[in-house]
Each structure stands twice: as structure tokens, then as C-alpha cells.
Description:
36% strand, alpha+beta, 4-stranded mixed β-sheet
Amino acid sequence: MLLSTTPALEGGRIIxxxxxxxxxxxxxxxxxxxxxASIRDIVGxxxxxxxxxxxxxxxxxxxxxxxxxxxxxxxxxxxIDIDYETLGKSMLMVSVSGTAVTVxxxxxxxxxxxxxxxxxxVPPWGGQR
Length: 129
């Protein structure tokens, strides 16, 4: 599955718009993670446990969006938007959306190579080419 934040893919032509696809994940933080994050606020540094939860949430949201696009028969998603929202005091929502499309690569063009990581994690699409 090709993924892009742009409305088109270089070297390809969109031949069908399959529909809007989304993925949402709501993450809850536990009391221990909140405690350690509060200590980090005081002494400084990065809150690694929160970063891991956020990264995992984003990966799961992308997996949901790609699964929906595959069900619609798409081979790419363009115009991807990633949003983060806080819900209450200790909940975070990660939401991704885009347009599922069928792309035909133009003569002599190869499909773009997908990134090998997403914010330091291995993406759910495995860097397919």
C-alpha cells in the first residue's frame, strides 16, 4: 500500500477514488506512567513511556486505515492527515484519515519506495515496494 500526505503520487495516475478512509485509536495512560512523566517534568528529559504509547497508537491507527482501504480495493492512500487530541486528563486520541485510491504507475515509472520507519518504529506495511 502506497501512502502519501500529498494529493497525488509522482509517477502515477489516480484511476479511481475509492473513498475516504480513517483509523482512530484512543489511548489511556496509567497512573505509573503519569507519575514518571510528572517526575520528568520536574527533572527534565523525554517521557519515553509516553512516546512509545503514542508511536504504537499511531501505528495501530495507520493499520486500521490501510485495512479499510484494502477492503475498498485501493492500492494507495493520498492526502493523509494525522491528528492528536486529548480527551479528559489522561486520554489521547490518534486519528488518521486519507483518500483511498487506485493508482496506475505511468509507463517506465516504478512505485515509490515506502519509508522503513514511522517515527522510529517499523511501519505496519513493512516497507513494501
